[in-house]
Amino acid sequence: SLYVSEYFSQSAQKLSFYSWYGNAKLFHFRVPEDTVLLRWLLQASRGKGPECSDMEITVHFRYGAPPVINPLGTRFPANATVRPSYNISIALSSAVQNTTFVNVTTPAAGDWFIAAHLPEAAGRIEVKGFSTPCPYMFQADMFVLRLTDMPVLEPGVAMPQTIVSPAKPLHVKVFVPKHAAGMRFELRSCVTSEQKACAVRVVLGSITLPQSFQRTVTCTGTTNCSLALDSPPWEKWLQVMVESLGAAAVSVEMLASFTVCRPGSTSSFLNFSSLNQSQTGPRPGSAAGSSALPTGEAPRNASDQRSVCLQSQPVVREDLDVVSVRYRLLNGPSVPVNPLSPTLLLLNLNSGMDSGGSLVLSLLLNKTSVNLANATVVACVTAASPVLSLNATQNCSTAFFQGYPLSVSMASAEATLIVLYPQTDDWFLSLQLICPKGQGECNAAEAKVTVFAYLTPCFNDCGLYGQCSLLRRHGYLYAGCSCKAGWGGWSCTDDTKAQSVGLQNLATLLLTLSNLMFLPAIAVAVYRYYLVEASVYTYTMFFSTFYHACDQPGVAVMCIMDYDTLQYCDFLGSVVSIWVTILCMSRVKKILKYVLFVLGTLLIAMSLQLDRRGVWNMMGPCLFALGIMIAAWVYHGVKRRHCYPSSWKRWVFYLLPGITLAFIAISVYAFMETNENYYYTHSIWHILVASSVAFLLPPRDKHKKPWAWSQKITCRYQICQNDREELYAVT
Q: Where do the TM regions start and end (predicted)?
């Protein structure tokens, strides 16, 4: 046999602490056909700075779709099917880098996904630039060993093969046709080169994570051994591995046979004809022909109803948007279900882009259509192949897949199933009527069940307290829910830590009404003739109030304009308020002050457009303005030959309290805010900053009277006042 090794690599990603699915970094690989060995190379590393500590990285694996994970232990939505993912932990302690290998023998061909993340996020709000987070990097590489000339086992044809040594097992593959109800694999004529009793192990199927349903049988002696499979995967290659348990070479003969199910359904001509008529309307002359054909086929269908193993219903896949599909039944939303053979619906999810959403199935029983009061419609949702024996065992499983059972009855006429991240494959919905034992009229009973099936990015659009986000990894798209107001869970349905409506209203009132503390600062500025500064404070108060009214996560929300516009105006007003306050304290010449006002505002607006949350957008203007103020104060002090400001009362009752309030506000803003206490810590920030402005504004000029009317002379002479030179001239 000729083996070929292949190597696939993807770029490293920076890991994040986990708070929702968007924090998990996804890697998407495709395993080729005839792969006999898969090896993952997982490389994790961290920075070398003092901010880096010991960390544990969790890595999840899944075949066919992104892994469904729950690191926070929250609740999933009702009727959602959740199976734990296969995961490992990688520790980063004293070593800066960790390399881990994960081996998978005979992996299933197709899409494989890896998701990696750090532990739960602490919830602290960090200002960008105040602290440097430790970088944790993760990279996944894939090695595959592929068999280029894997022998093909044809159905019904015996194939002799030889196992040379236990280190080199025998690999063959057999193609499973469509409508295969069962498969039987036989191993015959097993002899060793030493003419002793042989011992071999046969493994059917491939490994899929998190669950693997490989079938294994051990054959000893010269007797034939066999393995039977119910509902093998349709239209797929099935791998068979035979390995010797002894040291000598073994010669065996293999045989595979299938039991084929004969479906009974409407002809394809009728399906396309009904689809065409539903879209374009009936054409002239087509009514007679279309009605004559079903009449002629009716006797044959009635006579063959007992001989068919399933009744297939035509389903149309309608793509609506990204990861959004609706399935429409051509014969109407209701399907007939009888006890003789299951009714089958095919749901096509093999486009490669369907596994990033949620498959929702809803069944509604028409109570007037059931002849028996105690009858139950049993349904089973499976991938790759359908369940064809619901009436016998009621076991919702195929050869290599554990399905999802559903049932509706007169007592419970509705049933819903949510499959999170369904794997890429053909999905099947099997329905059959199960009647109570001992009633002869069971065979004549029939039920009508309305089926609704659709694929959606997020179930219920993440509810009232969540936001559905479309995530991307290279060309692959998938969706996740980002919850707010304390809600959690996969679809934001877990209210364990949810905020009450009263608490949401309180948070909104605190964050908005705390901006009213700018009113004293505005009054002081107007009283002291600082009208430009008062206008800036009014602008800041207005947009900060309505930005926080729009930024609320719960139901107490009011947006007067676009959210991004409100946020930008709030950030701009906050930084410009600090800028004009410090420049006003510097007591430079008016013309220079207003030039700096306008120039600084333009530069601040530009920097906020580049990086709105950067710390230097606030610290840069503050430091520059402080430099101007210190230089101006030093100039005034040297010119007057004493400290400036000269009044000790100005320092004790105004400057020191204002500076203290400003430093406390910056400390609360930078180091104390978290997601839980944001509504009152940020309100404290509003109050402290607005109060500090009222203290820090300098007094008005001594020669100016507070808002006095200008003096008028009755003889039409006007007194002109020169504020700078304090001279009066009569014109």
A: 506-530, 591-610, 616-635, 651-672, 678-697
Beta carbons of 578 and 621 less than 8 angstroms apart: yes
Domain range 501-696, its CATH number among 1.25.40, 1.20.1070, 3.40.50, 2.60.120: 1.20.1070
With CA atoms as reference, report the closest residue to 587 among 636, 537, 641.
636
How confident is the model over 6-57, as pLDDT tens digits? 999 999 999 999 999 999 999 999 999 999 999 999 999 988 888 888 899 9
* Cα–Cα distance measured from residue 473 to residue 471, given in angstroms and rounded to the nearest whole number: 7
Rounded to the nearest 10 degrees, what angle do helices 616-640 and 590-610 cross at?
A: 160
pLDDT tens-digit map of 513-551: 999 999 999 999 999 889 999 999 999 999 999 999 998
d(CA 535, CA 526): 9
Residues of the chain with CATH 2.60.120.380: 3-147, 157-260
For the record, the structure tokens of 727 come out as 């001279």
Six-digit token pair at 74? 């929250």
pLDDT digits (tens, 9 = 90+) for 659-670: 999 999 988 888
User: What contacts 24+ positions apart, CB below 8 Å, involve 94-100?
Assistant: 94/54, 96/45, 96/46, 96/48, 97/43, 97/44, 97/45, 97/46, 98/43, 98/44, 98/45, 99/41, 99/42, 99/43, 99/44, 100/41, 100/42, 100/43, 100/44
Instruction: Supply the DSSP string of 662-714, one letter for each residue.
Output: HHHHHHHHHHT-BTTTHHHHHHHHHHHHHHHHHHHSPPPPTT--TTPPPP--T
Please answer whether residues 254 and 242 qualify as being in contact, where contact means their C-beta atoms are separated by less than 8 angstroms: yes
Average pLDDT over residues 326-353: 89
pLDDT above 80: residue 654: yes
- Between 437 and 565, the more confident residue is 565
**254 pLDDT above the threshold of 60:** yes
